Amino acid sequence: MSDLFPPFAPDPNEPRKRLFKPxxxxxxxxxxxxxxxxxxxxxxxxxxxxxxxxxxVVAVIVAAFLDGVDGRIARLLKGTSRFGAELDSLADFLNxxxxxxxxxxxxxxxxxxxxxxxxxxxxxxxxxxxxARFNVMIDDPNRPxxxxxxFVGMAxxxxxxxxLLPLYLSFLGIPIQDSSVAPVIxxxxxxxxxxxxxxxxxxxxxxxxxxxxxxxxxxIFVLSVAAFGLLVSFPWEMLSLITVVFLLTIPISVMxxxxxxxxxxxxxAEDKPSPSGIEPPPVA
Length: 284
What we know:
Blueprint: H1 25-49, H2 53-77, H3 82-107, H4 114-137, E1 150-152, H5 156-163, H6 165-171, H7 182-197, E2 201-203, H8 217-233, H9 235-271
Antiparallel strand pairs: 1-2
Helix pairs in contact: 1-2, 1-3, 2-3, 2-5, 3-4, 3-5, 4-7, 5-7, 6-9, 8-9
Main location: membrane
Pfam family, one: CDP-OH_P_tran_2
GO biological process, one term: phospholipid biosynthetic process
């Protein structure tokens, strides 16, 4: 019997087989940034219920900044992955849907009782629906190139920043935490939720700035430094101004989108051959 099953001693110098392939760090780095943003969203909820609303708003804004950075870093490092895309979508739902909804409820919407809670739920669900639609539309291979300049509806990070406008105004000394003002804030929050799930095009600026004319380089540097200095020195004034300006530019985005859409439809009609296969003679 011992001949059939001889004793076996493994070679100590034989390299161990890896159960999983090593993952390059360039694939991990963008996900680390996403997780940091997710932690900031959870931290903002805790700060809001502790009454530290200014710090909670700052946490949401930093999370929005990191959300804009992680995808670009992933593309720069060639570290995009399906896992990272799903993690980013889940983080966006919490940071820009659940977190601002709970902050607003803790801040003023609780004055309306159940109605205020329903308004908070509407904002959170709108963010989830908006992100789900974005994930579906991003895989459309037939989407024209010019449509990349526009979001369908308000983007979730911008929706969260706009929804927090009542807090910016409160930090400026405007009395917002009042039961008489709560219905107005509820209507405003529901309106932001509607913009997130609507098909109203809003300008994204994703393809803006690929190439900058040489004469604009130095002015852009100066304007960027000035804007950063104003944001640090007067954060709530600047955030209020940015929110109001963005909301006022939505009609301009709609007109620009319709103009490009009509031009695209006209170009397709001109490129489409006639049914007989014979091109019509040119009009004199």
